[in-house]
Please model this.
Amino acid sequence: MLGNSFLNNIGGELKLSFSGEEFEKYNPADQNQLIGKFQKSNIEDLEEAVKIAKIAFKTWKNTPAPQRAEILYKAAEITSAEKNKLAEILTQETGKPLIEALGEIQEVIDTYLFFAGEGRRLYGMTGQSELYNKSIITIRQPIGICGLISAWNFPSAVPSWKIAPALISGNVIILKPSEKAPLSGYLLIENLYKAGLPKGCASIIFGYGDLGQAMAEHDDIKVISLTGSTTIGKKVSEICGAKLKKCALELGGKNAIVALEDANQALLLEGILWGAFGTAGQRCTSTSRLILQKSDWNKSFIEKLIKAANNLKIGNGLNQVNQIGPLISAEHREKVNDFVSRAVKDGAKLICGGQKLESGDLKNGYFYAPTILTDVKPEMEIAKQEVFGPVLSIIEVNSFEEAIEIANNTDYGLSLAIYTQNINLAMQSTNQLEAGLTYINAPTIGAECGGASAFGGWKNTGNGSREGGILALDTYTQYKTIYLDYSEKLQKAQID
Ligand code: UN1
Model:
């Protein structure tokens, strides 16, 4: 399969792009390994997908939700059966270690199962009328064609967060995966059809940012759900805003762990290693700041942290001894390296990593050493901008209050964590931290899919939408209130 040419899947049919062009995608751990060639789609391909989706929507929206759920249950079963294969492909496509790729495929399964359960709920509301023999109910209804634009760092789980709530609610979808990780999305769509999804309900078209923009601009696409950068998010939001189109945005983060003086140090150390360097720091939830309360153990703790970071095994994720994979591309690695150089110029002290790893087995990939900077001041670029790499900035503070203030001192608001054994301060922090996700004694990554979970951020991280839980339904449904008057006479609200 790897190295093949992959066609667009338009409503269940494999199609060449009208452009006659394709692009190539290579393994970031080994730039000689071709993952595949993918169609470089244009507006004509999009028109075709929209045409087919429009027809499919007419039937799918009226299919009973429990029947729609059967497709998701089946897709979860197929994904489970193929878990190892899908994870191996995901590792080669993104570079993330196999253990993490297996976790990501599990997240797809969990998401499908959770939203399949919604097939027998999709609850609305019932209320009391002010009049006799009259009832009021509010239901959720589908909206239409949903344009799903996803990022390269979670090319299976994040599309599933969008696909599952969209389909269970009775919508049809067109997915545009990132050109930097297109294959995993292709396999998601293929498996939905294997699970019995009716033709036309889902399409995947490969392409670049211009295609995403065309989706946002298309009048027949009624919802846009985007996971990507804040810059792109603002652009998409402007296009959708002008058209009054529903738009869900999940954008950047500048996440922090606050460590108070009474933190459990062993737990903190493990949490930092996982939060900052897991997935090579390429999660929108990655821990990029450690806000450390000054205490007598800081110096020895930082020494332990350096030692542990230097001991992390870096390399091809298919080799299970490796804990950290490559960055996604050569350009991205340059960008990360430039952030570190500028931080040093700004006065930060580089105490670990800070360089590309290019020797031996690593020479064909875009590996970067786990990096730690100290003496970081809250106003420095490195303390404020999203780096999206294995770079941790340590900011020392004097008090709990100062720690909270600095944790909140960013334009982003996705994930913030606190390590302390003081229950009162832990609980106070959950009130005061300005982020969509907060963790107590756990790092900033690792959100789950489930009823009470809601993935998304405050401030420039998004526009209030949520994924991965029940609230995701708000993106893919519109409410309808139905008044039932069985009094057999004209009743005047507010007057009778
Ligand atoms: C992302 O990086 O866009 O919470 C998603 C987490 C993962 C999802 C990350 N479950 O870290």
User: Anything to note?
Assistant: The chain has a mean pLDDT of 98. The pocket of 2-aminohexanedioic acid is lined by residues 107, 153-154, 158, 227, 283-285, 445-447 (CB under 6 Å).
